[in-house]
């Protein structure tokens, strides 16, 4: 059982680590092709390696691609418990500066509007994030107004580190073997690109994003689509009945995509088409789309609709060629988690034991966990506690950091109860 003294230790230790980690710049770069995408991420990796070694972990390593791996051996008598992996990402989103982050702890939040030292115009209130209502009386951490905070996902990193330090300080808390992996470049979609699956156990959890209590076992089913329109360019003065204006046809074509099925018109479990690039001239034009939904069948219907539009347009503009390329980018991870129900059950139980209500949410995007799940390592996501990510208003209540640590401790206990 976790007692009050342990909780206080968890809170102090995790907040201290969090404040330290967010001050290390780890912005990833979508335009870089190196691994990791930015050298700065290695600096946090080096700090974590030192800390993991001082906590007595084994096989501690920062590899050439910027991944940190470590192993915590099982408590005595718990060697037969199925090992689990705990994963968090070290990088922060390139959408907002992560340089010189100056975290501020707002003690005893009074429910009012929070202001920022470095930008007097910027405010944070319940209008921005209704969850703030639940955090009155708690300590809240923000950045200073000129950067993001980086709770996504340094909160996850700090929570895992504090769980390790809690196990070291309180050996009465038992656990099986725990594998740690901190990844670079999650925010640029490359967090598992160079991951060494040999160093991961059969089952993992990511601790990333999300308010207290969140458990994510679903993500989008995702497709990318490219359409190439090949027309016929003719001198515009003499083009009657001859020219097939590829870019003009492409504009008409994409206007047939249902307007109410776009990112700006959908939420929750609704899917969409998203035309994100259109270019061309009379001779040739190209449009790129992504298609997203939680149900693969609904996405397949969208592809069928595009195919039917293509045949209609070919009839309407004789001589026009339309080439269609599409590919399945990633699948809803639910498909991979369903056969291993106990992974989700243990997470649910651990969240409840930490005194929180479990909030199942479906991720309107992909995650490293989703990619790992597809690669044979089922990996649901558990909250790290932050809100308003990728923004200068990003914040986290310190209680959420402590609660996530409790969840990790209980999670290990749940796995120990039911060895497979
Ligand atoms: Zn994240």
TrEMBL record:
PROSITE patterns: ARGE_DAPE_CPG2_1 (PS00758), ARGE_DAPE_CPG2_2 (PS00759)
All residue ranges annotated as the Peptidase M20 dimerisation domain in the record: 222-317
Domain of life: Archaea
Enzyme class: hydrolase
Alphabetical list of NCBIfam families matching this protein: peptidase-T, PRK05469.1, PRK13381.1
EC number: 3.4.11.4
Any one GO biological process: peptide metabolic process
Species, as recorded: Candidatus Heimdallarchaeum endolithica
Family assignment from sequence similarity: Belongs to the peptidase M20B family.
UniProt name for this protein: Peptidase T
PANTHER family in UniProt: PEPTIDASE T
Keywords: Aminopeptidase, Hydrolase, Metal-binding, Metalloprotease, Protease, Zinc
Cofactor(s) the record lists: Zn(2+)
Gene Ontology molecular function terms on file: metallopeptidase activity; tripeptide aminopeptidase activity; zinc ion binding
């Amino acid at each position: 059982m976790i007692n009050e003294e342990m909780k206080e230790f968890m809170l102090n230790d995790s907040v201290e680590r969090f404040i330290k980690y967010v001050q290390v710049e780890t912005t990833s770069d979508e335009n870089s092709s190196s691994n990791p995408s930015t050298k700065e991420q290695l600096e946090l990796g080096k700090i974590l390696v030192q800390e993991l070694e001082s906590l007595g972990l084994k096989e501690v390593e920062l590899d050439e691609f910027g991944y940190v791996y470590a192993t915590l051996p099982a408590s005595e008598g718990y060697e037969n418990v199925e090992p689990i992996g705990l994963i968090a990402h070290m990088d922060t989103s390139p959408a907002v500066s992560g340089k010189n982050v100056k975290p501020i702890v707002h003690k005893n939040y009074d429910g009012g509007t929070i202001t920022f030292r470095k930008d007097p115009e910027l405010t944070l209130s319940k209008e921005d994030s209704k969850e703030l209502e639940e955090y009155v009386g708690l300590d809240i951490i923000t950045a200073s107004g000129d950067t993001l905070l980086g709770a996504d996902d340094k909160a996850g990193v700090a929570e895992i580190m504090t769980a390790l330090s809690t196990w070291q300080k309180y050996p009465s808390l038992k656990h099986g073997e725990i594998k740690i992996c901190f990844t670079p470049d999650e925010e640029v979609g490359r967090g598992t690109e160079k991951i060494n699956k040999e160093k991961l156990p059969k089952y993992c959890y990511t601790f990333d994003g999300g308010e207290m209590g969140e458990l994510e076992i679903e993500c989008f089913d995702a497709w990318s689509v490219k359409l190439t329109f090949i027309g016929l360019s003719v001198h515009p003065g003499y083009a009657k009945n001859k020219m097939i204006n590829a870019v003009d046809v492409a504009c008409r074509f994409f206007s047939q995509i249902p307007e109410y099925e776009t990112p700006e018109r959908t939420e929750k479990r609704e899917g969409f088409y998203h035309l994100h690039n259109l270019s061309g001239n009379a001779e040739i034009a190209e449009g790129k789309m992504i298609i997203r939904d939680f149900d693969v069948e609904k996405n397949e219907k969208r592809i069928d609709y595009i195919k039917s539009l293509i045949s209609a347009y070919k009839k309407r503009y004789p001589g026009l060629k339309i080439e269609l390329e599409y590919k399945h980018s990633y699948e809803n991870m639910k498909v991979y988690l369903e056969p291993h129900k106990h992974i989700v059950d243990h997470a649910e139980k651990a969240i409840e034991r930490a005194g929180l209500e479990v909030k199942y949410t479906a991720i309107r995007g992909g995650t490293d966990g989703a990619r790992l799940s597809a690669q044979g390592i089922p990996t649901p996501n558990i909250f790290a506690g932050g809100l308003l990510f990728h923004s200068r208003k990003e914040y986290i209540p310190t209680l959420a950091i402590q609660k996530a640590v409790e969840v990790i401790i209980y999670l290990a206990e749940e796995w120990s109860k039911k060895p497979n």
